[in-house]
Write a structure and sequence with these properties.
The termini are far apart. The radius of gyration is 21 Å and the shape is rod-shaped. It has three helices and no strands. The longest helix is centred in the middle third of the chain and has 29 residues. It has one domain. It has about 70 residues and is mainly alpha-helical. This is Antitoxin.
Amino acid sequence: MKISVSLPDEDVRFLDEQGTNRSATLHEAVALLRDRQLAEQYAEAFTEWNGSADADLWDATTNDGLPS
């Protein structure tokens, strides 16, 4: 898909310095934003799980005898 974006000259220069073409550089930037968002969602889910009563119950049933 082709799109048009408005960027300050400084941002365009930065894109030009990063790769051989702007599309590839923008594609990489979007992928990095997705990765960051996914990492934040995993961290939030872990925090929610770790603080739940279910986590304690699960830990009790999966104990392998090794120190954690």
